[in-house]
Every structure is written in C-alpha cells, then in structure tokens.
Amino acid sequence: MGVHVIDSWASVFKKWVEKAPWQAVMGLVVLLLLGVIAIIVTAQPCSNLNILGLALDQTKQAACSSKDDGTASPLAPATAETKTGDAPEVGVNPAPPSPALSFDVSFEAKGREDFRKRHELNIVEFESATLSQTPENTFGFAYSGSFATVWKDDLESLTVRETARSVYFEIQKRGGGSLYIVGFMRGDSAKELIRNGFPNKLIRLYSERYKDSDAIVAVPIKMIKSVGQSTIDVSREKYIPVLDLGF
User: Fold this and answer.
1) Which pLDDT band holds residue 56 (cuts at 50, 70, 90)?
2) Average pLDDT, the chain
3) Ramachandran region, residue 197 (left: φ > 0; alpha: ψ -120 to 50; beta: rest)
4) Whose CB has fewer CB within 10 Å in the chain, the N or C terminal residue?
C-alpha cells in the first residue's frame, strides 16, 4: 500500500508541475528557505555553518567573545597566562640569569676601592702567577705591555702580580670568571660612557690618574675588539702607559 501512496503523490506532483511550472518552482524555493531557517534555528550557538556551499560564521557575534560569568569562551584561544602546564614546580627555584657585562665608572677618589668592595674582591696572595692560576673574586696587577701582547690569543698566560706599580693595570677576576681591566680615562669621555652605556669606539685607558677630572673605569675584557699602546709623557723622567681599547 505504501508503494501505491508514493506513486499517487508522485503522479500528483508531476501533474502539478505540468499545469503550473512556476508555482512548482516557487514552492521548491519556499521549502528550501524553510529548511535553511530550520538549520539555523536548531544549530548550536557560536558555531560555523556551511549550507549549500555558503559559510555562515556565528563565532564573530558579541555574545561569543565571552560568557556571562566572565570566563573565556571555549572557542577563544588559550593564552600563556591560562595554561597550567608551564607553572613551575613547588620548591624549585629557577636558575638565576647570568650577570650582564657592564662598565663600572667612578669619579670618586676611592672609586677603585668601591669596585673591589662592591664585587667582594680580595688581593691575590702570590707573586708572578698566571691568570689561569688566579682564583675568582680576586684582583692583581699586570704590566701594560704584557696585556697588549697576550689579550687576544693567550690571555690565560698573563702574569698577575700582588704588587702594584705605576706601569701596571689592575686585573679583576670576578664571580663566574668574568675578567675586567681597571684604569683611568678622560672625564668627558667617562660622562659620555655613562650616558650611552657603551663607549664610542675607543677608550684610552691610563695606568694612573693624569688629571683631577679623570674617572676610573673597570672595562669588561670580553668586550674589547682591539688593543693598542701609547704613552703620556708627564716629564723627562716619567711617563704614563696608555692602552687604546677598541670596541
């Protein structure tokens, strides 16, 4: 009986199309629109729909950006703050960052002593030892000509002494093995170094103070790109060694 019913409906629809083709087309359009409306109404909120090749994005509606209770929408991407897997374990301290290399500059008469105290440095307890034998958190003194000779390729062989002399520069071996050379420079150049945080290509480092306006500076040896030598002739009997440090 069901077959006969289908056949009868099919024959009725065929006769209707033959007698009123435009009405049949309009009827199909209406049925199609009603189907689309039904899909939209019954679809989940804040979802993407694709109806007969037409995309309908409901996620851009204002109501989809957040929920009424203030929590993030399930469609919103998780941010770094909302992730729980990256949280550090309780009782585990993160590794401290390595100290950044920087210049120490002082215009004080006791600036050298301030550098040593700030970085907790002690004088080396031996004479004529190599830099490789010098322990961390100590300071000693090295001849300017020797430093200029070995600074690039064989710095660890530099002779560090306990006794200071006018032609020596102070060498500091701070925590972590960072190496600094200490001397004096022009006051105006030192002020520019303080402003910029980095020298303007060259520092002329003196082993002794030449003028009252000079500043004392600790230079990270690792940052030095070139080393030259010159002197300041104070008198016929005295001169001050100068290291021309390029950066």
Assistant:
1) low
2) 78
3) left
4) N
Alpha-carbon 85 to chain mean position:
23
φ/ψ of residue 117, rounded to 5: -70, -40
Counting DSSP H helices and E strands in the chain, the numbers are 5, 13
Q: Is 224 exposed, middle or buried (0-12, 13-18, 19+ CB in 10 A)?
A: middle
- Contact in structure between 231 and 147 (CB atoms under 8 Å): no
Mean pLDDT of 151-180: 96
* Helix or strand holding residue 194 (H, E): helix 187-196
User: What mean pLDDT comes out for the span 197-214?
Assistant: 93
Average pLDDT for 155-181:
96
Which residue is it, tokens 């703050």?
A: 81
Per DSSP, the three-state class of 49 is strand
Query: Element (H or E) spanning 118, and its range?
Result: helix 111-118
What residue ranges in the chain does DSSP mark as E strands? 48-51, 54-57, 104-106, 122-123, 129-130, 138-143, 159-160, 168-173, 179-185, 202-206, 215-220, 226-233, 239-246
pTM over 0.85: no
Interacting residues of 238 by C-beta distance below 8 A, sequence separation 6+: none
Confidence at 55, pLDDT banded by 50, 70, 90: low
Q: What is the token pair recorded at 178?
A: 């960072």
Mean pLDDT of 170-193: 96
Please report how the helices 2-19 and 21-42 are oriented relative to each other, as an axis angle in degrees rounded to 10.
Answer: 120
